[in-house]
Amino acid sequence: MSKESSDLLGLLSLGVYCAVCIGLGVGLGYLLDTKLNSEPAFTFVGLAIGMTLAFLGAYKEFRRSQEK
């Protein structure tokens, strides 16, 4: 596998990782909101947690790519 295709695959997997983190955070927050009737508090908390995890994962991946 060439370096360019490896880099492209890394970026694609990073995009999927970010989408999953944010989607799960919002989804779980929404489920908590519907169970506890507290809309939209936990949805926003889940969004914040998902975005934080996505940022940390992206930062980790970018640092790893800089070391190569």
Characterize the biggest β-sheet: none
Computed Rg: 16 Å
The gross shape turns out to be: elongated
Structural class by sheet pairing and helices: mainly alpha
Assess the beta-strand content as a share of residues: under 5%
Uncertain segments? none
Order of helices and strands: HH
Percent of residues in helices = over 70%
**Number of helical elements:** 2
Report the span from N to C terminus. 16 Å
Average pLDDT, rounded to a whole number, is 91
Got a strand count?
0
Fold and architecture overview:
- The protein is an all-alpha fold and about 70 residues long.
- About 90% of the residues lie in helices and about 0% in strands.
- It contains two helices and no strands.
- Helix 1 packs antiparallel against helix 2 (about 40-65).
Summary of the model, kept short:
The chain is an all-alpha fold and 68 residues long. 90% of the residues lie in helices and 0% in strands. Helix 1 packs antiparallel against helix 2 (41-67).
